[in-house]
User: What shape does this take?
Amino acid sequence: MKDIAIYTLTSELHDAQAVDAVTREFMDALHIDYDFRGSDYSDYGSHVLDLIYVRTGGTEGIFRRLLTQLQTQSGRPVRLLTSGKSNSLAASLEILSYLRQHGLKGEVLHGSEAYITARIQVLAKAEKARRQLQGMRLGIVGKPSDWLIASDVDAAIVKERLGIELLPLEIPVIAEQVEGGKEGALAIYEHLKALAEQQQLQGFTIRCFDLLTAVHNTGCLALAKLNAEGLIAGCEGDVPAMLSMAVTKMLTGQSGFQANPARIDPETGELLFAHCTIPLDMVERYELDTHFESGIGVGIRGFMRPGPVTVFKLSPDLQRHFIAEGELVCNQSKPDLCRTQQVIRLADPQQARYFLTDPIGNHHIIMAGHQRALLKAFLDAALA
Assistant: This one.
């Protein structure tokens, strides 16, 4: 079964051969792989993305008769594809208005072939990510750090809205009492990897500062390696940050960098983000240093390629989010900050004021590339 299915709405008043000719021309111009289901809606809702191709005008009544069946089988937003030929756009707008009047979500896909193709690809990726989150198991290893006073999460809401199961777990007993150094940091990595395997986790966040007193080392190297190996691994027991990283991973296939702003210029939109660990698959090179706050253990100074980035965060109640595209201008190596330091200039400088007026906690997730459209498509489908 292909990920995308095309269903049709066609008025009997229009010439069938002419409509079929327009259909072939239109669909050939879209660079997508799809199952063409025609007017047979019996398996609607079974594909990753179902599109209703409104081929002609005069189809509004047909759609209204189908709606109960469509909502029963899918429950997802109705996506209306139209070329604009034979009054199909007019019919699509009437159908979308009807959906809105009845409190239902929908969208008309119309424009250039390039725009429609790109939008379909984004919607398919977003829906696939939503499905992949269903049944995901994420651990909270130790309680969230005491300073995360605005980051409490209701596990029941996360399960209901994202399909993710949150598991509270104890920090594993690490026998090696190592006085810092790479060897001890790798021992922590092995223990956390084993814990994830034993608990069948796809990711976790850990109250990592407790390791400083327990084994005189840090989890920075462990998290950097585990993220690069495909596990979602977050710091400080920050659950909203971990959930944001999970969304990032499922949508883009890439790791996300959990960091907090260290400096903000609300006039230029330039921010300095810093943290003592970064996924090793995000950087061109890295150096080992001590952990900044404690001066012991192992911290990571990672150097990510300058270029397009997106800053993202979900709120603890999943009711809000922040998305800002920008450019990674440069990496810094100043001694008075967490070891990985990134200077990011937001595309819209006004968005910098969010951090000073209505932030969602301190940690935010940085990902490579401009991903706003993909994130919005996911949030509209999963959380709207």
